[in-house]
Amino acid sequence: MKNTLLSEEYGLSKRIQLIQIDNNTIGIVKKRKSRIIMKDGAQILAIAESIWTKNKSLAINLIISGPICSKTRKFLAEHNIKIISE
Predict the structure, then answer these.
(1) What is the pTM of this model?
(2) Quick check: 28 and 17 in contact, CB under 8 A?
(3) What is the pLDDT of residues 35-47, one digit of tens each?
(4) Residues 6 or more apart from 58 whose CB is under 8 A from it?
(5) Is the alpha carbon torsion for 30, 40, 3, 80 positive or negative?
(6) How many structural domains comprise the chain?
(7) Average pLDDT over residues 6-14
(8) DSSP code for 21
(9) Apex CA 12: angle with CA 49 and CA 25, to 5°?
């Protein structure tokens, strides 16, 4: 329930799972078995940008449970999105 409220607070869909890691960090949760590819990376960046429009000082982490493409890993790192594997 709290995750839904957090995503709505930033003007995002209820389906997007966000976790407040600490006061200055928000995590975008992607739990899936298939690999995260560049198309997903672009969507993650769009989510991050909508969060940054509300609060530019927040750090954003991507919390994943599956593999991630090396190009996507590099792309997200260039945009200051840290990746955390479960």
Answers:
(1) 0.89
(2) yes
(3) 999 999 999 999 9
(4) 24, 25, 26, 51, 52
(5) positive
(6) 1
(7) 89
(8) E
(9) 55
